[in-house]
Amino acid sequence: MCTVHSFPHNIDHCLTWARSEFEGLLEKTPAEANAYLLNPSEYISGMEKAGDAQARDKLERVLECLETERCESSIDCITWARLKFEDYFANRVKQLTFTFPEDAVNTSGAPFWSAPKRFPRPLQFSVEDQSHLNFVMAASILQAETYGIPIPEWVKSHAKFADAVSEVAVPDFEPKEGVKIVTDDKDTDMSTVFIDDSVVINELVNRLKLCYLRLPQGFRMDPIRFEKDDDTNYHMDLIAGLANMRARNYSIPEVDKLKAKFIAGRIIPAIATTTATATGFVCLELYIQGPERRSQSGGL
Fold first, then answer.
1. What is the rounded CA–CA span in Å between residue 176 and residue 96?
2. Gap between the Cα atoms of 291 and 28, Å rounded
3. 225, 5 in Cβ contact below 8 A?
4. What is the pTM of this model?
5. Angle, alpha carbons 209-213-218 (nearest 5°)
């Protein structure tokens, strides 16, 4: 997965990453937030009982959704989307190339950025670049949908939208020393700083309880399930924007929305179909072998 997350070298990698980000931001995290909002005490009890990194990650995402990145207006959504652009296509790349400069070498002395790796370049956002604006527009509209925020008509006017995006204050970014970036899926190095998950979980739970008190009564999120075949829902606009901006980071040829739809639409279903087909053949083989063989296999 480190190829998809940090070292893509073809558009399929970019679209796989885009599909994953879409589902994480707009479906899984809002759904997780709703699981908490439905029964806060039971949810917190479950996280405290688990007490592991996965529970910590879920709590961090719920808190992010309900507190640090919570949107209450269309302007909040535009701000969120503009800062996402900066995070995805500028800051993360700056951190990656700070940790691994263009002349970096690996442990054997060979160039780190050798094929198939591509050395990335951060994007400089511009309201004059229509693809930049299209990404921010799609992201802000879908973010608003998850919070049940009405979309004013002016948001879909590119001139007025560009003016609003220009007003967003973007903080300066400085890469940090010592950031761990996985470069090999087989990497099992545990030399990173030890984190006591239970302590962090306790802190997150306390913050979440205070956050809950500030939420409107009955507040719920509206998770978005990816649907590629509706050209008016902005799903493929966001997927294509995510993938193409990332491709631009890595000097990978970009694709139009139609091709992006074809590739992104088959990423998850292809895996599910393969698994179902393999399972079907296993079951068929057991029936061919007869009752004795099936009983030896534990039955069906």
1. 10
2. 43
3. no
4. 0.84
5. 110
